[in-house]
Fold this sequence. Notes:
The protein is mostly helical. Among the domains are: 48-94; 99-130, no CATH class. Helices cover 41% and strands 3% of the residues. It contains four helices and two strands; from the N terminus they run αααββα. Strands 1-2 form a two-stranded antiparallel sheet. A hairpin with a 2-residue loop joins strand 1 and strand 2. It is flat and about 65 Å long. The relative contact order is 0.04. The model has no long low-confidence stretch (mean pLDDT 75).
Amino acid sequence: MTNGPRLRLGRTLAPGVFAVALFAIAALVVLEAPFDGGDVGGFAEGVSITAEIGYALFGFYELSEIGGTEPFLVSVVLVAVALDAALDAALVLAKREEDGEPVTALAAAPDETGSPAAEAPGRAATDGGTATDSSRDTETNADATGGDGA
């Protein structure tokens, strides 16, 4: 009796089937696209599509040399929204939690005894350790140095 890999059916199979179907559609589009370099439509010589999109973005239609650049503007806005959603998702996924509590970026590392250094008495420094009295900016010292700690 061998213990080989088993195919898990159910909810775990759906994302894999979706990925294979998406790959098949992309492959079909690439294989059916004509790459013969025939009559390719484009813009006239000397026309900057970037300038045309900019004119459409700010409503300067009288400066536009060609019309119909609004679909490009819609594409730019849709890409901007998609990138913003991806950035938001990355921030959500990058947030760390331990035992249901959020972990800060400057969290204290455990010391030799295994207890977190943040629980040590005294003020916490920005590097996760504790601040010493020599590093504190006293009121008179702050007034003398302009508050910059120098």
